[in-house]
């Protein structure tokens, strides 16, 4: 089954919509190795966990192959090594491997292909039955919030953009890197992911709003993560979700397309209604300042209403940023111009086009 017959991505001239996803394609600190990709790719593969995933904050180690002693991951649970999608981990490594594939020799290509598919298998195993992804896998015991469905820091969206790029052969995936038999598997994983997104959009008084940062993967209930990450509606994370939905349509499922359009329209409406004009968050100073023409959204809002809030490591909500410690004020993204580009793309008329023909062959 060809993926092009399942999902459409909007082509040029609707480039502003396509560009919304670029930030979720980052390889982060691995950019430092792009001058020597083939060599670093082979080193990187030696740091891959037996389960197929990777850890965070291991980029500096990739300059050398694994020494057989250094811990490959900082994530452990009951003696089991855990891999993660936190902060772009695993996704960045897989994208780096894909970038290095074409210019490698035959032996290198085989190693890279094997490691890449092993990483894909880990991502597929990690997916919750309802369609979301946890922060780490296998599931973690002493910090159960890591097992939640994790939109926080765009974790789920990075996975879904990767799958969609592979299936639509976006660069660097226009190769034989991914075996053809993965197409239907990745299609189904994406379909479940979209269904989860639609089902997890928060409703207030019968009106769809936006999404939480993390939630129970079965009940869809917004949940707390760290002490300062309360159950909430999260504007920053919702922008990534909406950007993905705006680039995604199924051809043979008009009912899902209608629900996608409804989710987009409701999310954009909420973002417009809760935009704070002429205000800017100066993160290095940990304070809000007036700035003519600026737009701002607070990161977190109450689940049941639109009251924004902040929090600190003491596990208490604050309504005034000055009540938050300076360490958390400057070390966390409490507000920002998260949604202006998204809204501009939507208003160009490309966000809610007529549903594509369901009978496309």
> What is the fold named in CATH at topology level?
Glycosyltransferase
N- and C-termini, Cα separation: 11 Å
Mean pLDDT over the full residue set: 91
Low-confidence stretches: 1-5, 8-14, 351-361
Radius of gyration (CA) equals 21 Å
Strand order of the largest sheet: 12-13-17
Description:
By secondary structure, this protein is an alpha+beta fold. 35% of the residues lie in helices and 14% in strands. The protein has one domain (3-272): Alpha/alpha barrel (Glycosyltransferase), CATH 1.50.10.20. The chain is built from 10 helices and 17 strands. The strands form 8 sheets. The protein has a 3-stranded antiparallel sheet with strand order 12-13-17, with no helix packed on it. It is globular, with a radius of gyration of 21 Å. It starts with 6 loop residues before the first strand and ends in an 11-residue tail after the last helix. The model is unreliable at 1-5, 8-14 and 351-361 (pLDDT under 50).
